[in-house]
Amino acid sequence: MARTKEFDERKALDAAMQLFWEKGYEATSLSALTERMGLQRSSFYATYGDKRSLFTTALQKYSETRIAYLKAKLQGHASVRESIKSCFKDIIDIAYQTNPSFGCFCVNTIVELAPHDSQFSQITSRYQEQLQILVRQALEKGILAGEFSRDLDALAVSHSLIIFMNGLLVTLKTKPERQFIDESLSMMFQLLK
């Protein structure tokens, strides 16, 4: 007779995701994972397979959760311009309120693993594409509503915003002077005309 699991898989996955987010894939040991997740190694292997499989599951969960959050955020204001600004403001506020700042799990994975691992490159590329689509759709909505010029190239601007967001997330890990970030963001928003 099969034994029933004596742990909450969702909580264990959340704990693993947080640890991978904090330390990255390579720096996270199996011992640290099982301790953080509250599991014996046998339960870990039986449920998640191995460290790589668990990382993949955690990264996909993070991606889905983050896309859902940003979709709601972009739809949460009457003004598209304000919804986009709010997304960036949240990123900055969290970085300066959290010590240390772990950035974005997907962007961290792009930096650590995507250059030499095709599976993680595909997962993070898919995340970036979904993010770009959300931003482009928001910009198109703003154009139709008359909030932005009809000449605004929603595709090009959405690409620029995502590239800026990724760079911002990496830069914020070093907590530069806030004025430097605010001035850069202000310059970026000049694209939204």
Automatic annotation (TrEMBL):
Keywords: DNA-binding, Transcription, Transcription regulation. InterPro entries: Homeodomain-like_sf, HTH_TetR, Tet_transcr_reg_TetR-rel_C_sf, TetR_C. Gene3D superfamilies: Homeodomain-like (1.10.10.60), Tetracycline Repressor, domain 2 (1.10.357.10). Residues 6-66 form the HTH tetR-type domain. Residues 29-48 bind DNA. This is TetR/AcrR family transcriptional repressor of nem operon. It comes from Paenibacillus brasilensis.
